[in-house]
Structure formats: C-alpha cells, structure tokens
Amino acid sequence: MIYETLEIIKDQVSQFLDSKLAEADLLVLENIAKVDDPDTTTMNDKVVLSLINLEEETALKNHPNVHFKNGNYETKNKPVNLNMYVLFSCNRSVYTKSMAALSAIIEFFQGKKVFNQQNTVLNPTIPALDAVKEFRFVVDLYTPTFEQLNYVWGTLGGKSVPNVMYKVSIVSVEGSTVAKKGTPILEIESIEKRTS
Q1: Are residues 186 and 73 in contact, defined by beta-carbon separation less than 8 angstroms?
Q2: Mean pLDDT (10-residue bins), the chain, 196 residues
Q3: CA-to-CA separations, 187 to 70, 172, 184, in angstroms, rounded
Q4: What CATH code is carried by the domain that includes residue 33?
Q5: Number of domains in the chain
Q6: Is 189 a domain residue?
Q7: 156 in a domain, yes or no?
Q8: Residue 73 placed within a domain
C-alpha cells in the first residue's frame, strides 16, 4: 500500500497543480537523490515527490487480528501500520515558479488532509490503483529543524531546492496469508468429581 498511497497523493496534487498553475504533468514520483544523474531527465523543471522515511506506528500493534467468517475463524499476522515522510521538491528552472508550486502544494493540503474512498476518486488510468478498495490516511505538514533538513539533503547527496515535507499517517500494510484457521469453541463441558 506504500506505492499505491504515493500514487494517490501524486494524482491528487497533480490535478490541483494543473488547474492552479495551468501546467500539465508538473509532478513526478521519483527519487530526488538522482536529480543530478546525467541519465535522468524526468525531474528537469518538475516538482518531485519522494519517499524519505518510514516509521512504524507502534500504538496500533495491540489490536487482535482474528476474523470470524461463515462460523469459522481465521488468524492473520497483524498489519504493519506505517507513517511515511514524503518530500515535495520544487526543481523548477525559474525560482519564482518553484515558489508558486510550493505555495500551491501547501494550499492543496491545507484544504484536504484526510484521504479515503469517499472523498477521493481514484484515477482509472493508474494500474496500481485497480486493486485498492478501502483506504484512509491523513497528511500533515512536517517541519524538520534546520539541522534535520541539512541532514536530509546531505543524505540525498544534492543541493537543497525549495521543498516541503509531509507526514502521511496511517498507511496499513497487510498481506493476505492466513496463519491459522479453525472452528470456534461453542460449548464447554465440565465433569465434577464428588468426594464423599
């Protein structure tokens, strides 16, 4: 669900940027660390969406994962609930265009921070979203300190460009493998022994 979530965010923000800035296909889902690679031209004069970090949401680890179906039970391993940190990097050739794109991105998430199947229409042209039925995640502005931001760009190996970071909570990753199946216990009998 990590890739699918990034595609949903990319599609939604891209539509907003297209209407706000009147530029089509401005947003790309790429690794900003490769922006200076000579073979990579997909990020030239674009806004780049990159996954920076993942963190497990440990507060949701204690939920049971037993499901009853047709009178039987199925036990699965618990889903992994994740927070994702994503970076929007405005790699535009003109600085003022970078500022306009940055403002538009912040404006978009100010207006919409909760994404679910009721308020988000999935783009049918994105094959990765075909299997997505139910989803819910929240996008919040994340403001790293100057030191953290310097570390991020140092790790990415490039010069800093105008950017904004968001925390995407809670993305649930769950496989379909059933760990155990069985029938529930419906009745308990006890035998009493009397001592005389």
Answers
A1: no
A2: 93 95 93 87 93 85 66 74 94 95 97 92 89 90 93 87 93 57 63 68
A3: 18, 35, 9
A4: 3.30.2000
A5: 1
A6: no
A7: yes
A8: no
Q: pTM score, two decimals? A: 0.80
| DSSP per-residue letters across the chain | -HHHHHHHHHHHHHHHHHHHH--TT-EEE--GGGTT-TT--TTTTEEEEEEEEEEE-GGGTTS--EEEETTEEEEEPPPEEEEEEEEEEEE-SSHHHHHHHHHHHHHHHHH--EEETTT-PPPTT-GGGTT----EEEEEEE---HHHHHHHHHHHTS---SEEEEEEEEEEE----EEEEE--------------
Structural domain of 106 = 2-61+81-172
Q: Assess if residue 45 is contained within a domain.
A: yes
